[in-house]
Design a protein that fits this description.
This is Opioid growth factor receptor (OGFr) conserved domain-containing protein. There is one protein chain. By secondary structure, the chain is mainly alpha-helical. It has one domain. It has 15 helices and two strands. Helix 1 runs parallel beside helix 5. The termini are far apart.
Length: about 325
């Protein structure tokens, strides 16, 4: 069974909404207000709360009791300010856990380092860690449920402060922050505006959003060339991303030995959250074939030269 197959809508939607209304509980009987009081140690060691605090449109691969975002949840959070307010509380709590803080300055959303950054950044600022998966989930959840600016601010700050995190983790964060909402981060696709796949309600949302952007672009004065410049830049970005996915060699991709120590035994199940996330190709152990290939190419060239010389000699030989 796919880790990202869709569940039918039903109790999961109402249970998630009631959980964020403050009247419901998660599958372990915990209220949102209780989880928001947890210590950093408990937030780190518990692995079955993050799926409810930051739900996704895809099923969890490890917590089958976790609710998912369906059309009902999507519309509820985007239309009800009190639900988004409690989601912001969850975001602020997890930011504190990672050593950051949320602020709003002159209408702009900012995520900056908190007073506890030096201590709490150890929870995630390392090459491999299960919190990288959580961060991908958080960014995607925020965007889907209406906190686009908060998600982008979080990603921007992560990129500016990250020192040790692997390229693969940072790429998943980028995908969660930038691609169309109907496209999940583990999907390798170079057209990140594709609206032909994914949940219907997110496809509909993206089609409408992209149509508005296109209409706004057409209203741009054609004399200043701004509209065509935007198109050219977007096409250039798509080609660059296509090259990224076509490249099977990744210098920073971890080998199997590194992956085996990625998580402690009690954390391994959470790594399955995003299928394929930790399944990097083992490129570091491959023998270098470039010299052999060059040798073969040179031999082929020499054979062609010999054939040409034989042809020339035949053509010029006296009868």
């Amino acid at each position: 069974m796919s880790f990202f197959s869709r569940r039918p809508t039903g109790p999961s939607a109402s249970s998630l909404i009631s959980f964020y209304e403050g009247t419901g509980r998660d599958h372990r009987g915990r209220r949102l207000s209780q989880i928001l009081q947890w210590s950093a140690d408990r937030l780190e060691s518990s692995h079955d709360y993050i799926q409810t605090l930051f739900p996704l449109p895809e099923e969890s691969g490890v917590n089958w009791d976790a609710p998912i975002i369906d059309r009902q949840v999507f519309e509820a959070f985007r239309s009800r300010m009190e639900l988004r307010g409690r989601l912001r509380d969850s975001f602020q709590k997890i930011l504190w856990f990672y050593g950051f803080k949320l602020s709003y300055e002159n209408g702009e959303v900012k995520v900056g380092k908190g007073d506890n950054y030096d201590e709490h950044s150890e929870n995630w600022d390392t090459r491999f860690d299960h919190n990288h998966l959580r961060i991908t989930r958080i960014i995607r959840c925020l965007r889907v449920l209406g906190f686009e600016d908060e998600a982008k601010a979080f990603h921007k700050t992560l990129e500016a402060t990250t020192m040790k995190v692997s390229y693969r983790s940072r790429e998943f964060w980028r995908r969660a922050a930038e691609r169309a909402l109907n496209l999940r981060p583990d999907l390798d696709i170079y057209d990140e505006d594709d609206t032909t796949i994914g949940p219907d309600f997110l496809r509909e949302f993206e089609i409408a959003r992209q149509a508005k952007l296109a209409a706004a672009g057409k209203r741009t004065d054609p004399q200043d060339g701004a509209g065509s410049q935007v198109v050219d830049e977007r096409e250039g970005e798509k080609e660059e991303k296509k090259g990224l996915f076509d490249d099977s060699e990744d210098e920073e991709a971890p080998n199997e030995r590194e992956q085996s120590g990625l998580q402690a035994a009690d954390e391994r199940h959470e790594v399955q959250e995003w299928k394929g996330f930790a399944d990097d190709e083992n490129t570091s152990g491959k023998p270098d074939q470039s010299g052999l290939e060059n040798l073969k190419d040179n031999e082929a060239v020499e054979e062609v030269k010999k054939d040409l010389r034989r042809t020339d000699n035949t053509a010029t030989a006296p009868n």
